[in-house]
Amino acid sequence: MIEREGWHFTLICDHCEHEVESFDEFEEAVSFKKKNGWKSVKGKSGWFEFCCNCSTPEIMDEYRRK
Ligand SMILES: [Zn+2]
């Protein structure tokens, strides 16, 4: 997930809860994801974000059903 805290955005892996803090712009968090191998999955309850360690087909499939 990408969380907004005041004027900053924090990118958090929905599986291992690894956090990347303090992006000034939402777009910066999105481009960080692209550069660092993060993936997004749309599940039944919304979007999930995964760090490069957690973006395996098995884990992402599990969240597609959540
Ligand atoms: Zn992770």
Short key terms for the protein model shown above:
5 strands; 36% strand; binds zinc ion; two-stranded antiparallel ribbon; three-stranded antiparallel sheet; alpha+beta
3D structure, described in words:
The protein is α+β, with helices and mostly antiparallel strands and 66 residues long. The chain has one domain. Helix content is 27%, strand content 36%. The strands form two sheets. A three-stranded antiparallel β-sheet has the order 1-2-3. It is globular.
Poorly predicted segments: none
According to DSSP, the number of beta strands is 5
Cα(first) to Cα(last) distance is 14 Å
Major pleated sheet: 3 strands, antiparallel
Please give the domain count: 1
Put the structure in a nutshell.
By secondary structure, this protein is α+β, with helices and mostly antiparallel strands.
Outline the fold blueprint.
Elements (H helix, E strand, L loop, with lengths): L1 E4 L2 E5 L6 E5 L2 H10 L3 E5 L2 E5 L6 H8 L2
The chain binds zinc ion.
